[in-house]
């Protein structure tokens, strides 16, 4: 049996090999012998060539017809321009019925006002109002044109000279609105490719300027000099290219979002070590810090030439509107053609420029107003022992649930919650509650932090008290008593 | 050791091309374009040579700023140093009076070839054809000024606080109601500066994932707001509704990203009422129709047209017969027609409520000065006739007749004049850069103050002189202005078109 199978297999194999090796007698083409395997190979090549010549299959791409485009456009539904209106969006701020001085009238009642940044008490000052009135009668209200096209009035030039003289800088430039100052200055000097190191707690105006400049922005921890040094070190170490691009540090003198004061002496040391330039926003420190109100540089004893660019809004201590920027002649001159908020906008109304000149004259002539401001701030924060009535007036140092988070010299006294609710929305609800109750029950007007949806700052929210040199001791006592009482009851369940 | 020759980096060449329909509108011939370009080339070559010499001379001087990159690299302000400084005396002329029909222009002198200018104490009284004083409220007004002074004494120059904090007074609330009523919308919100209005509102309305389509000649504040928003920005050809439709169709089909076709969140089309460099109106009815068809939102910036055009001064909507309800957001400023400062947005109640909650300018920026608010309130009352007189209607009629008269006379003289009928802004084309200072200085010598604009406010080849007519210009003022402009225009060769024969120019 096995041998029969073996025989059959051998026979089959023999047949195959014979058939394979047998010369194809008929296949002698043009005198060339053709072997069997050549036929297979030729067939294979023919198949490959055939496939290569076929067009590759792509799904046909015809352009959309007009009807199809119409249909797509019909189908598309846009989002509404505004999100749905929630209850907290409906809150309205109180309406004032008189000037926003230390005492103002809301809803027919007189209230103590700690919500206006009227640091030197210049709201209602007779001399300033007189200069405004004479300016109004001479120049009208508006200036009706940008600075380049007959909008430059001689009071603008006088104001610029006055401010430069006061600050001790060669020149200054006037802007028509406080918040537009910083977001026009930064893009004028920082372009794509430059490096900016900014504090994470800067306010929206600065953030907008940084965004518009399209430079590389690196944030450092709020008011933390160690973090700043590390950032500067990281950016410049081993970086040969860094020499050729412009580098800036952007800080605020008194931070609106927290009341902290930037340590200028350390910043100048770092700036000189790493070759950066400093842009300083002095909106809340101009007219407040320093022995004569010249700002942060005077306070720290740093010569003002070391700060490259100083900007400030005049809507705080100087009790007028607008802003200015000061620095070297090159810095100021460059802005006259390349700062968009200066070139493309109408100039400051002349009466506000006269008010600024009068305010600076007043500040230079009455430095005692700074001492009253400082004593008011100290009184509010720390309190003092009042001998006559044997009452301990503790100020704000022991308000239940709230703690002072600002620098002792800052005119913005910033109180934040000792224990946060976990979200800034919840915190704001509590704080707004406190502010509303204080206004209704004790006729004391204070405000909490406002945050816009566009604001990138993540610092904790809190209550802001703007101390003025025009506040009396009884005002300060009233606000601290009221705050203590209302905070105790409102935050009772929260603590 | 090789010594490298200090070669200043190349100057950025500004865009020269002018689109076809703009060329036709401004009558730019090839000869004019070539000669203008040649003029620029000469300036650039000289400027380049001067920079080269400066580099060579400063080569040996010590550098204080070792380790620092220069704060203004030489090529960035090449235009400022080499071209603008030569003609600096034609710009930023200080005045010593209110910007009324006649102003006192302060004379300046220079010791260093126009690099720095110093004021003198003399001023010359000139006819003012440059300020935006459309209704004549710039100087004191018998109704407005006493009320403004009263408000100033009551409320002080400022409230030192943002609107959301302690900056809202009765006046602000009254103004918002009044402007909403004036414009024809349910509600309004006001800000202290027009520029900030645009740059802080647009980011709140449209964010990432949205599309902004803006006219190519839009103002810098709109461009800045669009850039700050993070949305994608496309531009459509100036005042061309057909191109707008094309862009809309293409973008809706394409979607946010080319591959995925994710739909846009929302589309905002931004146009202006009057384009201030050309003086022409926007083709509003067609654009509104297109936006309605494609469900895009429309944002109208009426900075120059509110209060100045329209039968009762309500702006471009009234003039062109568009219902204000069809426009989603109406923006305007108080600087031009009402002689004050600030801007407003008028829209539906919900949008305004949302803006009050979210807009950074409302939450952080100092509120508008109460005296300026009172000026606007009084000015609007005069325009509406609510002050008990018909001065408002008279002013509107005067500005309309004055601007139409001025424009037709200029055209008869053979100037190329841009600007639509009824628009108080018109532009006389000069094209050539050298004609700008010639025109400006010659007019000033004859006591007429005009505004001349060149690059970068206008395209490179299209320099012009811009005239703004005011309701406080009398017929005699306009005739004097025309006489001077005709003489000076003839001298500089700006009369490019054939003038009409003398007998047709007879003035009544």
TrEMBL record, chain A:
<dbReference type="InterPro" id="IPR015421">
    <property type="entry name" value="PyrdxlP-dep_Trfase_major"/>
</dbReference>
<dbReference type="GO" id="GO:0046512">
    <property type="term" value="P:sphingosine biosynthetic process"/>
</dbReference>
<dbReference type="InterPro" id="IPR015424">
    <property type="entry name" value="PyrdxlP-dep_Trfase"/>
</dbReference>
<dbReference type="GO" id="GO:0046513">
    <property type="term" value="P:ceramide biosynthetic process"/>
</dbReference>
<protein>
    <recommendedName>
        <fullName>serine C-palmitoyltransferase</fullName>
        <ecNumber>2.3.1.50</ecNumber>
    </recommendedName>
</protein>
<dbReference type="InterPro" id="IPR004839">
    <property type="entry name" value="Aminotransferase_I/II_large"/>
</dbReference>
<comment type="similarity">
    <text>Belongs to the class-II pyridoxal-phosphate-dependent aminotransferase family.</text>
</comment>
<keyword id="KW-0663">Pyridoxal phosphate</keyword>
<comment type="pathway">
    <text>Sphingolipid metabolism.</text>
</comment>
<dbReference type="GO" id="GO:0004758">
    <property type="term" value="F:serine C-palmitoyltransferase activity"/>
</dbReference>
<feature type="domain" description="Aminotransferase class I/classII large">
    <location>
        <begin position="110"/>
        <end position="408"/>
    </location>
</feature>
<keyword id="KW-0443">Lipid metabolism</keyword>
<dbReference type="InterPro" id="IPR015422">
    <property type="entry name" value="PyrdxlP-dep_Trfase_small"/>
</dbReference>
<keyword id="KW-0746">Sphingolipid metabolism</keyword>
<dbReference type="Pfam" id="PF00155">
    <property type="entry name" value="Aminotran_1_2"/>
</dbReference>
<dbReference type="InterPro" id="IPR050087">
    <property type="entry name" value="AON_synthase_class-II"/>
</dbReference>
<comment type="subunit">
    <text>Heterodimer with LCB2. Component of the serine palmitoyltransferase (SPT) complex, composed of LCB1 and LCB2.</text>
</comment>
<dbReference type="GO" id="GO:0005789">
    <property type="term" value="C:endoplasmic reticulum membrane"/>
</dbReference>
<comment type="pathway">
    <text>Lipid metabolism; sphingolipid metabolism.</text>
</comment>
<comment type="function">
    <text>Serine palmitoyltransferase (SPT). The heterodimer formed with LCB2 constitutes the catalytic core.</text>
</comment>
<keyword id="KW-0808">Transferase</keyword>
<dbReference type="GO" id="GO:0030170">
    <property type="term" value="F:pyridoxal phosphate binding"/>
</dbReference>
TrEMBL record, chain B:
<dbReference type="GO" id="GO:0004758">
    <property type="term" value="F:serine C-palmitoyltransferase activity"/>
</dbReference>
<dbReference type="InterPro" id="IPR015422">
    <property type="entry name" value="PyrdxlP-dep_Trfase_small"/>
</dbReference>
<feature type="transmembrane region" description="Helical">
    <location>
        <begin position="28"/>
        <end position="49"/>
    </location>
</feature>
<comment type="pathway">
    <text>Lipid metabolism; sphingolipid metabolism.</text>
</comment>
<keyword id="KW-0812">Transmembrane</keyword>
<dbReference type="GO" id="GO:0030170">
    <property type="term" value="F:pyridoxal phosphate binding"/>
</dbReference>
<dbReference type="InterPro" id="IPR004839">
    <property type="entry name" value="Aminotransferase_I/II_large"/>
</dbReference>
<keyword id="KW-0663">Pyridoxal phosphate</keyword>
<dbReference type="GO" id="GO:0046513">
    <property type="term" value="P:ceramide biosynthetic process"/>
</dbReference>
<keyword id="KW-0808">Transferase</keyword>
<dbReference type="GO" id="GO:0017059">
    <property type="term" value="C:serine palmitoyltransferase complex"/>
</dbReference>
<dbReference type="GO" id="GO:0046512">
    <property type="term" value="P:sphingosine biosynthetic process"/>
</dbReference>
<keyword id="KW-0443">Lipid metabolism</keyword>
<comment type="similarity">
    <text>Belongs to the class-II pyridoxal-phosphate-dependent aminotransferase family.</text>
</comment>
<keyword id="KW-0746">Sphingolipid metabolism</keyword>
<dbReference type="GO" id="GO:0005789">
    <property type="term" value="C:endoplasmic reticulum membrane"/>
</dbReference>
<dbReference type="InterPro" id="IPR015424">
    <property type="entry name" value="PyrdxlP-dep_Trfase"/>
</dbReference>
<keyword id="KW-1133">Transmembrane helix</keyword>
<comment type="pathway">
    <text>Sphingolipid metabolism.</text>
</comment>
<dbReference type="Pfam" id="PF00155">
    <property type="entry name" value="Aminotran_1_2"/>
</dbReference>
<feature type="domain" description="Aminotransferase class I/classII large">
    <location>
        <begin position="126"/>
        <end position="484"/>
    </location>
</feature>
<dbReference type="InterPro" id="IPR001917">
    <property type="entry name" value="Aminotrans_II_pyridoxalP_BS"/>
</dbReference>
């Amino acid at each position: 049996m096995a041998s029969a199978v073996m025989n059959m297999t051998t026979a089959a194999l023999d047949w195959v090999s014979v058939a394979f090796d047998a010369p194809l007698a008929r296949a002698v083409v043009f005198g060339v012998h053709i072997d069997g395997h050549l036929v297979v190979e030729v067939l294979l090549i023919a198949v490959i060539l055939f496939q290569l010549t076929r067009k590759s299959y792509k799904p046909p791409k015809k352009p959309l017809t007009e009807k199809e485009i119409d249909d797509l456009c019909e189908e598309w539904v846009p989002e509404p321009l505004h999100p749905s209106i929630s209850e907290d969006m409906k809150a309205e701020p109180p309406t004032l019925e008189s000037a926003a001085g230390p005492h103002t009238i809301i809803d027919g009642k007189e209230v103590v006002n700690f919500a206006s940044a009227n640091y030197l008490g210049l709201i209602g000052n007779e001399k300033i109002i007189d200069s405004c009135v004479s300016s109004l009668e001479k120049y009208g209200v508006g200036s009706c044109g940008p600075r380049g096209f007959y909008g430059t009035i001689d009071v603008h030039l006088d104001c610029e000279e006055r401010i430069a003289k006061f600050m001790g800088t060669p020149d200054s430039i006037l802007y028509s609105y406080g918040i537009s100052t910083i977001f026009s200055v930064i893009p004028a000097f920082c372009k794509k490719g430059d490096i900016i190191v900014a504090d994470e707690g800067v306010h929206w105006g600065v953030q907008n300027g940084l965004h518009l400049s399209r430079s590389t922005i690196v944030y450092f921890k709020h008011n933390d000099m160690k973090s700043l040094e590390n950032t500067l070190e990281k950016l410049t170490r081993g970086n040969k290219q860094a020499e050729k691009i412009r580098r800036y540090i952007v800080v605020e003198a008194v931070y609106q979002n927290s009341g902290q004061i930037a340590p200028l002496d350390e910043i100048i040391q770092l700036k000189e070590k790493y070759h950066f330039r400093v842009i300083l926003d002095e909106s809340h420190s101009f007219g407040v810090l320093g022995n004569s109100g010249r700002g942060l540089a005077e306070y720290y004893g740093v010569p003002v030439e070391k700060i490259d660019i100083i900007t400030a809004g005049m809507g705080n201590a100087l009790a007028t509107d607008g802003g200015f920027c000061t620095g070297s002649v090159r810095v100021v001159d460059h802005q006259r053609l390349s700062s968009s908020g200066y070139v493309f906008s109408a100039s400051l109304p002349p009466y506000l420029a006269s008010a600024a000149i009068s305010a600076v004259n007043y500040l230079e002539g009455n430095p005692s107003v700074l001492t009253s401001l400082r004593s008011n701030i100290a009184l509010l924060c720390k309190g003092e022992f009042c001998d006559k009535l044997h009452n301990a007036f503790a100020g704000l140092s022991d308000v239940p649930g709230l703690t002072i988070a600002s620098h002792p010299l800052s005119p913005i006294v910033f109180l934040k919650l000792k224990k946060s609710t976990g979200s800034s929305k919840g915190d704001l609800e509590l704080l707004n509650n406190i502010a509303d109750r204080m206004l209704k029950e004790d006729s004391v007007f204070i405000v909490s932090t406002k945050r816009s949806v566009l604001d990138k700052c993540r610092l904790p929210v809190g209550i802001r008290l703007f101390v003025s040199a025009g506040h009396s001791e009884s005002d300060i006592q009233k606000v601290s008593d009221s705050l203590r009482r209302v905070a105790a009851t409102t935050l009772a369940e929260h603590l | 050791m090789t010594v490298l020759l200090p070669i200043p980096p190349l100057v950025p060449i500004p865009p020269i091309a002018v689109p076809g329909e703009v060329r036709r509108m401004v009558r730019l011939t090839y000869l004019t374009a070539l000669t203008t370009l040649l003029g620029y080339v000469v300036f650039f070559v000289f400027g380049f040579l001067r920079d080269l010499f400066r580099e060579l001379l400063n080569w040996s001087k010590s550098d204080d700023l070792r380790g620092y990159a220069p704060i203004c690299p030489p090529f960035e302000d090449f235009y400022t140093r080499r071209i603008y400084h030569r003609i600096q005396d034609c710009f930023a002329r200080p005045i010593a009076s209110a910007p009324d029909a006649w102003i006192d222009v302060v004379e300046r002198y220079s010791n260093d070839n126009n690099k720095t200018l110093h004021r003198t104490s003399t001023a010359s009284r000139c006819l003012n054809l440059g300020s935006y004083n459309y209704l004549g409220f710039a100087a004191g007004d018998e109704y407005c000024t006493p009320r403004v002074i009263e408000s100033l004494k009551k409320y002080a120059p400022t409230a030192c606080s943002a609107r959301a904090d302690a900056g809202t007074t009765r006046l602000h609330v009254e103004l918002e109601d009044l402007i909403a009523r004036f414009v024809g919308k349910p509600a309004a919100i006001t800000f202290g500066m027009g520029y900030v209005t645009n740059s802080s509102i647009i980011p709140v309305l449209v964010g990432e994932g949205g599309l902004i389509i803006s006219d190519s000649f839009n103002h810098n504040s709109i461009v800045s707001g669009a850039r700050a928003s993070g949305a994608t920005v496309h531009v459509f050809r100036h005042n061309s509704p057909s191109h707008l439709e094309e862009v809309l169709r293409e973008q809706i089909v394409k979607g946010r990203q080319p591959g995925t076709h994710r739909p846009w969140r929302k589309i905002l089309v931004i146009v202006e009422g009057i384009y201030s460099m050309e003086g022409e109106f926007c083709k509003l009815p067609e654009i509104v129709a297109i936006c309605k068809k494609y469900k895009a939102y429309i944002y109208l910036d009426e900075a120059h047209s509110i209060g100045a055009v329209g039968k009762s001064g309500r702006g471009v909507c009234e003039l062109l017969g568009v219902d204000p309800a069809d426009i989603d957001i109406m923006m305007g400023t108080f600087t031009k027609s009402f002689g004050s400062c600030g801007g407003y947005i008028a829209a539906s109640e919900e949008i305004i409520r949302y803006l009050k909650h979210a807009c950074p300018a409302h939450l952080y920026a100092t509120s508008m000065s109460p005296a300026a608010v009172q000026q606007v309130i009084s000015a609007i009352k005069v325009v509406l006739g609510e002050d008990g007189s018909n001065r408002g209607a008279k002013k509107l009629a005067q500005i309309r007749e004055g601007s139409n008269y001025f424009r037709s006379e200029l055209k008869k003289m053979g100037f190329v004049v841009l600007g639509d009928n009824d628009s108080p802004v018109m532009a006389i084309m000069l094209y050539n850069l050298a004609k700008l200072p010639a025109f400006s200085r010659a007019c000033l010598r004859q006591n007429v103050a005009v505004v001349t604009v060149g690059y970068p406010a206008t395209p490179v080849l299209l320099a012009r002189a811009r005239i703004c007519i005011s309701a406080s210009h009398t017929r005699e003022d306009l005739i004097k202005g025309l006489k001077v402009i005709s003489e000076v225009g003839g001298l500089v060769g700006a009369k490019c078109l054939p003038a009409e024969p003398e007998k047709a120019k007879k003035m009544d």
